[in-house]
Amino acid sequence: MRGFAMLGIGKTGWIEKQAPECGPLDAICKPLAIAPCTSDVHTVWAGALGDRHDMILGHEAIGEVVEAGSLVKDFKPGDKVIIPAITPDWNSLEAQGGYSMHSGGMLSGWKFSNFKDGVFGELFHVNDADGNLALLPSGMDLASASMLCDMVPTGFHGVELADVQFGDTVVVIGIGPVGLMAVAGAALRGASRIYAVGSRPNCIQIAKEYGATEIVNYREGDIVEQIMEKTHGKGVDRIVIAGGDVDTFDQAIRMLKPGGRIGNVNYLGEGDYIKIPRVEWGCGMGHKTIAGGLMPGGRLRMEKLASLIETGKLDTSKLITHTFHGFDKVEEALMLMKDKPKDLIKPVVLI
Ligand SMILES: [Zn+2]
């Protein structure tokens, strides 16, 4: 079978590989819609996972089951399914402890294009099919559904980590597709004022449509000063970090109220340490909590998030700025993600 792969750090190309084998609990799927991700760009061009050779890329796909293992109960060939980017082993001790995303070791619930070939292949393997696949609701648009694989659950997990409550004031740092979903998630959870930090005009427009009440543009001055001015020196209750770097935590602590929480879902690819400002952290006693986590993955979450699209509570189609047709276009779509033209939020390839 063919697949679009990382050949080595900074190198990509089409390769031929043996089709994956289906274990008794697994499924083999073919992609119907795939979306490249900033993580794919980090993997290839920043070498974020270390060197990988001939590893098929991609972790965001809507697919069709072509083979189901002998012990799989709820899925059969022909089923159209949502495949989460994170596919834990649900019978692991880590999953039993509530941290499915770390099943088998820290961050090891992330398997596609990390420990095994990803979804940019003509066929791909899904472990623990009953635990990880979700049926695609009938009639749901494939491109909209593909945002359920990573963008929605990751953005929403930032909101969960920040524990947004009714009436909270919230800052969302970074309004790429994940940050935009954090804005939408904070609004669904009943936040009052939502300050979205970003600069791209189309992202700003869509952030407002998802519920941002104010925009903070980092090109117009220090974001901490802007937030402190807007909140009359008090700061905010919750912060979701969906962009930036190791220095973003310093800024977040400075604009967070005592008792506040920071939820980080941004992948930190560089730097050895994160600095916490001592005085603004209450000299260690400010009750300012920092939580960072990989999204949980799994079928139940996929089904619940899909129901938000089905019931009209969430419209993910706003994220999709570029649509390609045909499997071969995955290369072009990934390069678009790498080059990040100004009007790009998220590309999708329909197959
Ligand atoms: Zn992704």
What do you see in this structure?
The protein is built from eleven helices and 16 strands. With 351 residues, the protein is an alpha/beta fold. The chain folds into two domains: 204 residues, Quinone Oxidoreductase, Chain A, domain 1 (Alpha-Beta Complex); 138 residues, Rossmann fold. The strands form three sheets. Strands 3, 5, 6, 7, 8, 15 and 16 form a seven-stranded mixed β-sheet that branches. Strands 11-10-9-12-13-14 form a six-stranded parallel β-sheet, sandwiched between helices. Helix 6 runs parallel beside helix 7. The two termini are 15 Å apart. The chain binds zinc ion. Zinc ion binds next to loops. One of its GO terms (molecular function) is zinc ion binding. Its cofactor is Zn(2+).
Give a concise summary.
Its cofactor is Zn(2+). By secondary structure, the chain is α/β, with parallel strands linked by helices.
Q: Key terms for this structure?
A:
351 residues; alpha/beta; Quinone Oxidoreductase, Chain A, domain 1; Rossmann fold; seven-stranded mixed beta sheet; six-stranded parallel beta sheet; 11 helices; binds zinc ion
How widely separated are the two ends? 15 Å
Structural class: alpha/beta
- Distinct small molecules: zinc ion
The CATH superfamily of the largest domain bears the name Medium-chain alcohol dehydrogenases, catalytic domain
Assembly context of the chains: single chain
What is the succession of H and E elements? EEEHEEEHEHEHHEHEHEHEHEEHEHE
From the alpha-carbon coordinates, what is the Rg to the nearest angstrom?
20 Å
DSSP helix fraction: 25-40%
CATH topology of the largest domain: Quinone Oxidoreductase, Chain A, domain 1
Shape designation: globular
Number of strands: 16
Q: Please count the helical segments.
A: 11
Number of domains: 2
Q: What is the second-level CATH architecture of the largest domain?
A: Alpha-Beta Complex
According to CATH, what is the class of the largest domain?
Answer: Alpha Beta
| Contiguous uncertain segments of 5+ residues | none
Largest β-sheet summary: 7 strands, mixed
Task: Give average pLDDT, whole number.
Answer: 97
